[in-house]
């Protein structure tokens, strides 16, 4: 590890168990920065909150003191028969203090609850938005399960801190300081004696904090693994059942679940040592105070009331310590979560948005590759050096074996990736200087994936253009030949598609995806194997539609079925990332190259 | 739930005993303080001071020790319980049929397996014990107070009445809110999941803002309900703190009067108020603990909702020995839950051992549904499917799914090694078998991956092309050498050359197996001995490709590539 700062940027540290001191300091700083950032807008509210809580605690603390005053000052005059005035006053003040405490306490709970929820909302928004900004290359590695675990279980860990932790900590700290001060004011000697174990307490707490930091990191990691496995097996449940994977899955899950349990067990055991430890220190002190205080009282150096108050306050002094350690617990858990989240937020999109985007009013659709080199891994470049110009309005078919680089080419035009060298230009403008909305308005890619979101059919088509009217949605479906089957669905366009479109067939999903792309009306349309699941009549309808759709826009069509290719103005045959044939389909068929033989094979396959 | 607690009964009894002793110790400590004040201090008895001090020390150490024991002993049962429920939930979910999974978003399932189970854990590990301990402590202290001086004790006991009344009201309302929060969090998890899995589609259309808006709506909903929860509990928590403080003021007043009347010693009053102050915290924390227990209860409800779903697809009793693979659909009907009309209706089809039948039908005609009935991913809602004359429902699921293997159109790959993706449940396959399957599916590209078969492929295999993914799915299906092989439009994303190679290899595989091939293309149809046309939910025609091509216009329309053959062409244009 030469430069820890770089290597540990972003999510790189996620799978590491033990971290060296330098790195963990770095991570803590990063988390703290995020926390500070989140708290910043609430500065004023926090100040108000602090004022409220101080009043509330002072009122709360005053009550036992007032009881002591009542006993020491109120009862003797009453016994002497000089009246109950003092006693009544004290009782009245106690009632007032209780009322004050109640009111401020309620205000505190509401305000702190609101701040907490505000922060959670902000954090959710920020992390979600950031995930959406990150490039595909990030998502391909990170997996959706981890995205989900960040946005659910990690956020919840922080929620817990904000809901109960903060409340507990502030109250506890104030109670402790207040009590310590009172103890000293009440009686200096006894007070000092009571505070003797304080350094020990601090050392003990430090030990606990260090240990729990390690343990909670482990908890966050193990729970993330549980979530990842859970989500993946539920997403792929059909294959799991069909291929009898249940048993093996159960084994894996059991192991992950057990790891999570062990991590949790360590944290609980740590608490099992820490909490009683605090109690032990507190109780020993109480015993000491009892003896010393008793001795002092015996020699009339303190009053009975003072001694009674001392015993009361000592309890109040050590109870919050447990509260504080409980807070530490949630803090550590939240800290580990914060560390993961700040890591995600630190990730920069591999295809960054330009700082000063170049405006492109309406794209015409001229695409140009200039000396483009692209590789997923350095050893195996997918596109070694590509030069290609596609004039606006041209329909280009890309043909070639798997791995020839067709999809990569398509992904470069959609800027899912940036080339390692060279430039990709749209209407003469480098894609890297276009902002996302501009680029996506101009370039849309339909893949064979056809992801449908839960919602209605209409919602899914409208995804192509959220402001489209119902009529436009219908028109798009009609144009693509999907109107008929959609109308036949139980609720027509308002039919819920079910989880990931589970209620529709692959072909139907593909048609919806087509309608979606049609509605988006881009200048450049990329179809990557977009008709593979369609039956012949549907494909024919789509192709007929494509003739009109593609008439005035640039298109890049990747298809193994050469039927789609026939509507193209130009065919590019690719091999190992290079264009080996380029020409009008008829021209190429007439020639004797790759495409001609592919075409022959295809004609034969139709037989 | 009870079944989960049973193995820990011994430990639980121990924990409770220790907890009770702990309460005893924590009550004893202030009592010793009272003794010191009333005894040595009042009587100037210096000699008695030290023994009492030592006693306090002993009790104090004991209390800490008991706390340690309780906490340490708790770890096993609490986590064991959570882990076992999670294991069982997962097992149960794996058994629930596709019909269930089609309806339930995995975000909702996930929030049950994580958030809800930790709510239960927190309650069991902390809440339940504290709830009972608090109540015990409250009653014990009240009894001690009653003993000390009953009129004041009675006053303290009476203050419990408003607390109980308000708590009950609070609970009712709180349970509704917390259930709503939990459900809304599940919805939020679902949105997150969709946004992560559908990231390519979102990027392709640049719909980041659109997706963010719907997430934001949902997050705001959670925010709103959580705020309602905050407000509701703030009122309740405050109430719980006020009552004991007010009672304390009254006790002081009345106690002072009693001391004045000579009914009460000063030391007793000091002890009385000390003990009463000990009540403040248990009562105040009652609110928090009650809230926690409510959450655990709704969480348990949500978990049980899933656990109580009986898998509609139950294991049969028979194991098929030496299956021949004679497959019959006998008057099969399938209706999606809640759908008005069935997808498949009175469907009859016979596939003899070794025979291959292609199923051809328009998009959405129910071909995939039909193939799902064979390995019982779905069960027919009417009629039956038989293998060698046995209803598939009578077969043990494991044994049935060993006979039938399906290559799905959507390959469903997992983020694990290629090898594991291929073997899935068929863990004992040898290298040779793997290699043979890879070759059949023309998936030799896997050997060129950086670590060959041990290369971990990304989630859903998204770093592979569509054709590569389909070939992996095919290799997976042929690996186990199934008696019945179902190919659900498995070759759609392959290029013509690869398809031809795959088909050649598949012909060899299908010679020995019974096959059902769903196809859109003439080339794939030719893999089959005969073709069945699926229309209107039933098989209307069975014959060879050429027979149907000649005799059935609907078939021609579906399969003929040449547009001129299409009689409806003119109408459509």
UniProtKB/TrEMBL annotation, chain A:
Organism superkingdom: Bacteria
UniProt key word Nucleotide-binding: yes
Compartment(s) where it occurs, according to its Swiss-Prot or TrEMBL record: Cell membrane
Spans traversing the lipid bilayer: 46-67, 87-104, 166-184, 190-208, 270-291
Family to which the UniProt record says this protein belongs: Belongs to the ABC transporter superfamily. Lipid exporter (TC 3.A.1.106) family.
Gene Ontology annotations for the cellular component aspect, listed alphabetically: plasma membrane
Protein name (database record): ABC-type multidrug transport system fused ATPase/permease subunit
Membrane topology note: Multi-pass membrane protein
PANTHER family, alphabetized: ATP-BINDING CASSETTE SUB-FAMILY B MEMBER 10, MITOCHONDRIAL (PTHR43394:SF1), ATP-DEPENDENT PERMEASE MDL1, MITOCHONDRIAL (PTHR43394)
ABC transmembrane type-1 domain ranges (all copies): 47-333
Keywords from the UniProt entry: ATP-binding, Cell membrane, Membrane, Nucleotide-binding, Transmembrane, Transmembrane helix, Transport
Pfam family name, one: ABC_tran
SMART domains from the UniProt entry: AAA
Sequence ranges assigned to domain ABC transporter in this UniProt record: 367-601
Signal peptide extent: none
UniProt GO MF annotations: ABC-type oligopeptide transporter activity; ATP binding; ATP hydrolysis activity
Main subcellular location of this protein, as a coarse class: membrane
TrEMBL record, chain B:
All residue ranges annotated as the ABC transmembrane type-1 domain in the record: 17-295
GO molecular function: ABC-type oligopeptide transporter activity; ATP binding; ATP hydrolysis activity
Subcellular location: Cell inner membrane
Ranges of residues in domain ABC transporter: 327-561
Keywords: ATP-binding, Cell inner membrane, Cell membrane, Membrane, Nucleotide-binding, Transmembrane, Transmembrane helix, Transport
InterPro entries referenced in this protein's UniProt entry, alphabetically: AAA+_ATPase (IPR003593), ABC1_TM_dom (IPR011527), ABC1_TM_sf (IPR036640), ABC_transporter-like_ATP-bd (IPR003439), ABC_transporter-like_CS (IPR017871), P-loop_NTPase (IPR027417), Type_1_exporter (IPR039421)
Pfam family membership, one: ABC_membrane
SUPFAM superfamilies the UniProt entry points to: ABC transporter transmembrane region (SSF90123), P-loop containing nucleoside triphosphate hydrolases (SSF52540)
Keyword Repeat on entry: no
Topology term for the membrane: Multi-pass membrane protein
GO cellular component: plasma membrane
Record field: transmembrane: 12-33, 48-69, 123-146, 152-170, 236-260, 266-291
Family named by the database record: Belongs to the ABC transporter superfamily. Siderophore-Fe(3+) uptake transporter (SIUT) (TC 3.A.1.21) family.
PANTHER family: ATP-BINDING CASSETTE SUB-FAMILY B MEMBER 10, MITOCHONDRIAL, ATP-DEPENDENT PERMEASE MDL1, MITOCHONDRIAL
This protein's name: ATP-binding cassette subfamily B protein
Organismal lineage: Bacteria, Bacillati, Actinomycetota, Actinomycetes, Streptosporangiales
